[in-house]
Every structure is written in C-alpha cells, then in structure tokens.
Amino acid sequence: MTGTELLPIASGARSGRFLLRELAGHRAATLGAVVLGIVAAAATVVPVYVFGVLVDRVTEGAPASTIVGVVAVIVVAAVVGGVFTGLGAYTVALLGERILASLRERVVARALILPVERLDRAGRGDLLSRVGDDVAVMAKSLGEVVPQILAAVLLVAVSIAAMLGVDWRLGLAGMVAIPLYVMALRWYLPRSAPLYASERVAMGERAQALVSSMQGARTVRAYGVESEHLARIDAASAGARDIAVTVFRLFTRFGSRSNRAECVGLSVVLLAGFLLVRDGSVTVGETTAAALLFHRLFNPIGMLMYSFDDVQSAGASLARLVGVLDLPDERRAVTGREPDSGRIELVGIRHSYDGVHEVIHGLDLTVADGDTVALVGSTGAGKSTLAAIVAGSTEPTTGTVRIGGVPLTELAADRVRRHVAVVSQEVHVFAGPLIDDLRLAAPDASDDEVQAALDLVGAGWVADLPDGVHTVVGEGGLALTAARAQHVALARLVLADPAVAVLDEATAEAGSAGARDLEDAARAATRGRTTVVVAHRLTQAAAADRVVVLEHGRIVEQGSHDDLVQAGGRYHDLWSAWSESLADR
Ligand SMILES: Nc1ncnc2c1ncn2[C@@H]1O[C@H](COP(=O)(O)OP(=O)(O)OP(=O)(O)O)[C@@H](O)[C@H]1O
C-alpha cells in the first residue's frame, strides 16, 4: 500500500440533487407525508387557539359548562393530532428506509467492482465505515430525526400563521425572535459543519486502524508489535473522541444562544400583548393564545435547531455514500463487443503500484487460444502482478490487455469475470453450505453440474463430508484446509467456464503428493482454456506449452521447457536449482 487515499466525498450540492431525485422517484409517498404532517400540525395548534377563547369566555363571566365544549375540541384535536403524527412519521420513515436501502445496495455494488488497488489505497476500513457507520447515522436520521424535522417545520409554519391570524401585531412581535435564531445558527453552522465532516473522517480512520490490525492479527502477533498497533488504534480513537468532545462543547454554547432567542421573543409577545390589551385592540384571551402559541414553538424550533446537528451529520454521511456511488469507472469505455476466443495479447504493459517505482517495464506477450503459459522468475520479478493484469484485477499503468481481440477496458467488470477466471493464493471460502460457495460464479448450475465439476478436479473428499456438498463450511462451519479451498476454487472455475484461466496459487509444498494432486486438478480444470499460470513450483512450468521467464519486470527468456533447459540460460539455472532442492528432500 502506498499511503491512504480515502474514497471521494460528494459535494453538498451533489448530495442535495441526489436526495431530490430520490424523492421525486417516490412522489406519492413524499406528498402523502407532507399532507399528513400539515393535518397533524393544525390539530396541535387548535387546542391552544381554543384555550384563548376559553380565557375570554371566563373573563366575560361565561358559565362553567363552557369548558365542556373546549375540552371536547381539545380531545378530538389530540386524537386527530396523534393519529396523523403517527401516520406521518411512519410514511417518512418508510420512505427514508427505502431510499437508504437502495443507496446502500448501490454503494456496495459499486464498491465490489472497484479495482482492487483503488480499494487497497483507500483501505477497506474506509469503505466498511461508509456502509456501516454512515448508513447507521443515516438510518437513525431517517427513522427518528427526519420525521421530527418535517413535523417541526410544519408546526412552526402553521403556528406562525395562527399567531398572525390572532392578531398580526402579536404575530410580528413573535417574529422578533427569528433574527436571533438565525444569528445563533449562523454562528453555529459554519463552526460545526467542518467538525462533523472531520468527525466522520476520524471515524473512518479509527475503523481503518482497527480493521487493518485485526486482519493482520497473526502477523502483528508473530512480530510482537501488538503495542505499536494498539498505540495506533489508541491514537485514532483519541482523535475521534477529541472531535466528539469539541462538537459537544460547541453544541452547548449554541444551546444558550437559542434560549436567548426564546426569552427575547416571549418577552416581546407579552409586552406587545400588554400594550394592545391596554389599548383595547386585542383581548386577554387572544394575547394568551398568541403567547401560548409562541411558547409551543420552543419545542419544535429547539428541535429544528438541535437537529441541524443530526442533519449535518447525516449530510456528511450521505456525501460519503454518494461519493462512492459517483466514483468514475475510470478506464472503462464499455462497447458491448465480446471476445471471440481466449487469445491473450499484452501490448506495451508497464505498471507501477505507487506511481514512482515501475515493476513491469514495457512488456509484450501473446498467448494463443487454448495454450498454457507458465510465468517463472525469482521473487519480486513481477509474475503475480502480470497475472493480475491479465485477469483484469489490476489495471496496468499503461498498455493494453486484449482477450479474444477485445481490450479489457471495453468490457464491463462483470463481463471480464465471465471471460477470465482467477484462482489466486487467497481463496476465500464463504460461510455457508459448500454448494453455495461452488455456485458463486454459476448460480444456475444444477446439482449434477456441480458434482461433475468436483469430479473433474478430483475433489473426492467432498463426498466424505458429513453432509456432502451441503456441509456448512467456512466461519462457524467446517474449516477447509488451504488445499481443499484450492479444490473448491478450481471447481468454481470449471463451473464458471471462462475462456481464460489465471492461476496464481502457492498452496502446496513442492514435491508433495498434495502438490501433484493440485497440479492434476488445475490441469483438468484448465483443459481447453487459455491459461496463464504463475509457476510457484517448476513442475507447473514443465507441463506448460510455453515458459516465460521474468526478471525485474522484463521477459528475459521464453520457449518450451525442453528448449529452455537445453539453452542453458536463466531457466536452465532455475530448473537445476529446483531439481536439486527436490532431490534433497
Ligand atoms: N500491492 C502492491 N503494492 C506495492 N508494490 C507491490 C504490490 N504487489 C507487488 N508489489 C511489488 O511489485 C514487484 C513485483 O511483485 P510480484 O508480486 O508481482 O512479483 P512475483 O514475481 O509474483 O513475486 P513472488 O513470487 O514473490 O510472488 C515487487 O517489487 C513487489 O514488491
């Protein structure tokens, strides 16, 4: 890895447009939520209004029975308000969850076809934090905060309309608070937005530190560097904690500013009411209603002000998810052209992982349809890199890879996998029934086809498992040895039936029965396919149609095994050393 380069983050404007487009896609639910919210808000305002009327009646000396009608209105309004608030919150939450579920699916789908290097540069923790932490932040917002915000906005709008309806001067008096609220927000938002963004980044870094230490736990333990890793995790956690504390401090100061706005607003309403009642232009009941309406606004306005926090936090999370979604599919210009064979052509391939050190230096290679080429060379010669370039899992820095006449960059990522299958050193066995693992690349394969693939690669051990091919393997199930996992990978390759196979496995001990077994399995699985094999054991090279010897990222020799042994060059030396080492065992 060449330093962290976190995945991109979308701009605020782009995230806003994304949200609007999603809402437009769910027009009926969006409109329904607004209408339900307006009815709920109106039902909340009615009792306050009626209370003002009651005050006037009492002042006028109305009989005690007047209260019955008022109570009845309040009860009905409370029931209507409750029902509509519930329905509104449900509609908003449902709408939000739908949008979030589809967003999460699209982000994961986009991430799964990211070039491996891009993901390596970003660190898997960053991606996990986005589909984990960020989705959780948004889910909380959508489930709790957004319904409350919508209800609060509508309540504020309806209450202001009601205050103006009682008496426009009382309404205006209440509005004195608005500039104070605006000032509080203008003080708070520019300070908190960057803090929230950095809080998200710090969370990503903390996840990254944790994930990388856990993934490399064995190595960490083997080298006794636990304390360094713990220190790194500590530092990342401390960074996240310090930002959270700063956010909270800022938030408290913001709270006192909004209380000031409430205090001033209510005082002005009462003062205006006092003067107007003295003038005889409004009644005591009207002033009471206006003051209560204003007081009732404390909660929704406070809720709005405080939820700017969550909104910003959710906004930062949304931007991080949309950022992944918008990642350009850099090199692809999909044309729909399909390879007509398994012929491989590499033209002018150069590659550098870090943009500084080139590890493949301008390499050309052609493999005829159906041929097997073995890549040989000392450690670090570039064999695995070249294999990954053929497989399309590493994009070369420059040069063209063609399969069956079509550049890989013209094939959509899923089409590449259709034509080129890879068996690498790390075979992942997914937890679940073995048959699901086998069907990974060919979900429609019948039981007979799966069995035929297992037979072809000689995986007789599957029949001896407790539940045969339905045995649960992987985490929580039966652990497979590395050699068995390779068998599974080879059977998967047979089921995927690609024209090109790339093998880069170093599982078996050279010269062992296991190695011979796996080599036979690999030969059977790749028969008839164009195959590039990284020859970790030179017996693999001896069986290939052609051997390509790499050194320092260049081809130094190529030809048949026999010709190269006879030629007495680099391959001859490697082969002699190999044969001697086998004889010594
Ligand atoms: N992910 C990576 N990031 C940075 N450098 C890398 C990466 N993978 C390989 N390299 C470097 O690229 C060069 C070629 O490595 P590569 O693994 O392709 O060689 P190889 O011939 O397959 O070696 P081996 O037999 O040890 O696997 C080496 O210098 C290696 O350190």
From TrEMBL:
Family annotation (SMART domains): AAA
Record-annotated membrane-spanning stretches: 28-55, 67-96, 145-164, 170-189
Single annotated GO MF: ATP binding
Keyword Phosphoprotein appears in the UniProt entry: no
Cross-referenced SUPFAM superfamilies: ABC transporter transmembrane region, P-loop containing nucleoside triphosphate hydrolases
Family matches, as CDD domains: ABC_6TM_exporters
UniProt domain ABC transporter: residue ranges: 344-577
Matches recorded under Gene3D superfamilies: ABC transporter type 1, transmembrane domain, P-loop containing nucleotide triphosphate hydrolases
UniProt keyword terms in alphabetical order: ATP-binding, Membrane, Nucleotide-binding, Transmembrane, Transmembrane helix
ABC transmembrane type-1 domain location: 31-313
InterPro entries for this protein: AAA+_ATPase, ABC1_TM_dom, ABC1_TM_sf, ABC_transporter-like_ATP-bd, P-loop_NTPase, Type_1_exporter
Membrane protein topology class: Multi-pass membrane protein
Pfam family, one: ABC_tran
Superkingdom to which the source organism belongs: Bacteria
Compartment(s) where it occurs, according to its Swiss-Prot or TrEMBL record: Cell membrane
Major localisation: membrane
Protein name as it appears in the record: ABC transporter ATP-binding protein
